[in-house]
Design brief:
This protein is α+β, with helices and mostly antiparallel strands. The protein contains 19 helices and 23 strands. The two termini are 51 Å apart.
């Protein structure tokens, strides 16, 4: 029973209703979200660029009767301008037109002399640049919003959100015509419903749309893990989920039963749904006193109902399908002890920051590799099981196969297939064994690693970001073919433990992309950076930390960049390769590596692009920009030189992740 002091409540709600009446006058005012002005390039007021910009904005505004429009002004001149807008797929023509009209006025106020700008509203977005961006995926600048209300079982809720969001993305990229918009709804239980949305700019093809949405969905756990609502906005696509209908269901699908957000929920944006509710209240309830009384009663009922929904969500097992195969994957601790001769030192294959690895032989004669994880993992038993089930479903010839697990008491053990030729670093960094890795074998290893990471990023049912790709995590089978190991294992530990362990491993900082090393932000492009470093190591036969420039120690990336600028790339070649490697092919592989380690993550290629480029000499490679950072060490200090473009803002309502391009 909710206790309310009626006189104070009447006064407050009456005031609220009067304010709402005032707001309803501007019902078509779009809900502003964020804007970005790229300060790197500016134009001279009243110059050619501004003249072309005015023409472009006028064209965008006059074509706002459609959901999407892109155009160019001044094409062929010295200062062309490229621009586009697109509206949310469920927004009607009037609201779309009004949103674009506001955008063309607002953007020149906030970004008066910038050549590249981006502005987001809840109903539309507008963008212009001095460079053509049509038909190309852009993920920067980006912005994330989250709901401050938490769930009590974030791991399962995140899995549920991810699976439904992926379904929406699949529908969006395959949408017939040019709309590239889809929504998906899911009954979590008999009371609660999850609503998701995915949309791309219609100039993208299905493949690029799918890639953009996949990357956007991958950022949801980063920005919004365990939250009841969240959204990620890229220039080329956006995704969002809530536990209440935030879009016009009549414009997307037959309307289901109405659902209101749970108690304590604060929306990250106020769109057409909220404004429509205000209009309905005003049109139906004229007397202010009657309206406030109805609101008091209604809010009380909704509060009780929402609390029941929330409790039901948190207590029921909503992802039973994820753990239905657990029993078939679980090994007993006794069987693991027997297989490893009670974890004898004789069977130890190696030690790692997350646990020790042993060779074992099961009773049926199958050889296995057993990884006994550290006992101070912060992950619970249920999460550990679910994670193992998900990772075990990843099947690729260039990934080490996870056979199962053991979870008894404080023991958390992973059981892998046994790979006989140890890890890549065992051969690559040993002067006596380097000769076994001729050019043909190294090319096979490079391509295999690339294909394995491509599978994790793009081809598996779930996107997996490795986060710790390095030579010691590449195992070699009896044919010297590579198998990526420890993929996704970082998810089994708390973030602090991963970073702490990484800091204790020599050279690890050289593998880590700066956005991850400095801010903990990881994406597919941070794996691409790690692959670039690993590629340089394979080509040179040297560790990343073993080079000097002048009197200072320097990473391999810095040394390779110096040789590239001095046109002495062949000096980096491992001496063992000189009799088996064509110089032009070696230089092309170095070129690919430098593209992977560029400072701007958005400029780094995707792994699918890397795979195609490794095997083909036809594509013309772009000129690499400056590497992401140079790590300079001396006996007393370490300095990381570079730039990052990320900022976190918390205003009490939303938490925003801003990364300008």
């Amino acid at each position: 029973m909710v206790s309310i002091k009626l006189p104070n409540t009447l006064l407050f709600l009456s005031s609220f209703l009067l304010i709402s009446i005032g707001l309803s006058v501007g019902a078509n005012v779009p809900t502003y979200l964020y804007h970005n002005c790229t300060n790197a390039t500016t134009y001279t007021p009243n110059g050619i660029y501004q003249i072309n910009l005015r023409s472009l904005l006028s064209s965008l505004s006059s074509n706002a009767s459609s959901e999407f429009h892109y155009t160019t002004a001044g094409e062929g001149s010295s200062s062309p301008v490229y621009g586009s807008f697109f509206c949310r797929g469920d927004v009607n023509t009037t609201a779309c037109r009004d949103c674009v009209s506001f955008a063309v006025k607002d953007i020149v106020k906030w970004c008066p002399v910038q050549k590249e700008t981006m502005i987001w509203y809840d109903e539309c977005q507008l963008r212009y640049s001095n460079r053509s961006f049509f038909g190309t995926v852009y993920e920067l600048p980006r912005i994330s919003f989250l709901n401050t209300a938490n769930v009590t079982d974030p791991y399962r809720f995140n899995l549920l959100v991810g699976s439904i969001q992926v379904a929406a993305a699949e529908a969006a990229k395959g949408e017939p015509g040019d709309k590239k918009f889809a929504t998906q709804e899911f009954d979590v239980d008999e009371l609660l419903r999850l609503y998701t949305l995915a949309q791309c700019t219609p100039d993208l093809n299905a493949s690029n749309c799918g890639r953009c949405l996949t990357d956007a969905i991958a950022r949801l756990p980063i920005c919004c893990s365990g939250k009841l609502g969240g959204r990620v906005l890229f220039p080329s696509c956006n995704v969002r989920y809530e536990v209440y209908p935030f879009y016009n269901q009549n414009a997307t699908a037959p309307p289901p039963a109405a659902t209101q957000p749970p108690s304590g929920f604060t929306s990250t944006s106020k769109g057409n749904t909220e404004r429509s509710s205000i209009v309905i209240v005003i049109s139906v309830v004229v007397p202010v006193v009657v309206a406030t009384l109805l609101l008091v009663v209604g809010c009380s009922v909704l509060r009780v109902r929402a609390r029941k929904k929330y409790n039901t969500l948190m207590t029921q097992d909503n992802v039973k399908d994820l753990t239905k195969d657990v029993d078939s994957l679980q090994f007993s601790f006794e069987s693991i002890e027997t297989a490893t001769s009670n974890f004898s030192d004789y069977n130890m294959l190696g030690k790692g920051g997350f646990g020790d690895v042993y060779k074992g032989v099961l009773l049926n004669g199958q050889e296995i590799a057993v990884k006994r994880l550290s006992k101070n993992s912060g992950q619970g038993a249920t999460e550990f099981k679910n994670e193992v089930v998900l990772v075990a479903k990843l099947q690729h010839k260039n990934l080490v196969r996870l056979l199962g697990f053991c979870l008894e008491g404080n023991e958390k053990i992973l059981v892998y297939e046994y790979v006989p030729n140890k890890s890549l670093d065992y051969f690559l960094f040993d002067p006596k064994k380097q000769s076994q890795l001729n050019w043909s074998i190294r090319c096979n290893i490079i391509e295999g690693i690339a294909r394995g990471i491509q599978y994790l990023h793009e081809d598996s049912r779930l996107k997996v970001i490795h986060r710790d790709l390095k030579a010691s995590n590449i195992l070699l089978d009896k044919n010297m073919s590579p198998k990526v190991s420890d993929f996704g294992m970082a998810k089994l530990f708390g973030e602090d433990q991963i970073q702490g362990n990484t800091m204790r491993i020599v050279g690890t900082y050289g593998y880590m992309a700066p956005e991850y090393a400095m801010e903990g932000l990881y994406s597919v492009k941070s794996d691409v950076f790690s692959f670039g470093v690993l590629l340089l190591e394979i080509l040179s036969g040297s560790k990343n930390s073993s080079f000097r420039i002048g009197d200072c120690a320097a990473g391999l990336v810095a040394y390779a960049w110096q040789l590239w600028n001095e046109e002495r790339v062949l000096d980096l070649m491992d001496p063992w390769l000189k009799d088996s490697c064509y110089p032009n092919e070696f230089m092309r592989y170095i070129h690919i590596a430098l593209l992977c380690v560029q400072e701007d993550a958005n400029l780094r290629p995707t792994m699918s692009s890397v795979v195609s480029t490794l095997k083909s000499e036809a594509p013309t490679l772009s000129h690499p920009e400056r590497p992401a950072f140079i790590s300079t060490r001396s006996s007393s200090h370490q300095k990381i030189i570079g730039t990052t473009n990320s900022l976190s803002v918390n205003n009490g309502m939303t938490v925003t992740d801003l990364v300008p391009r």
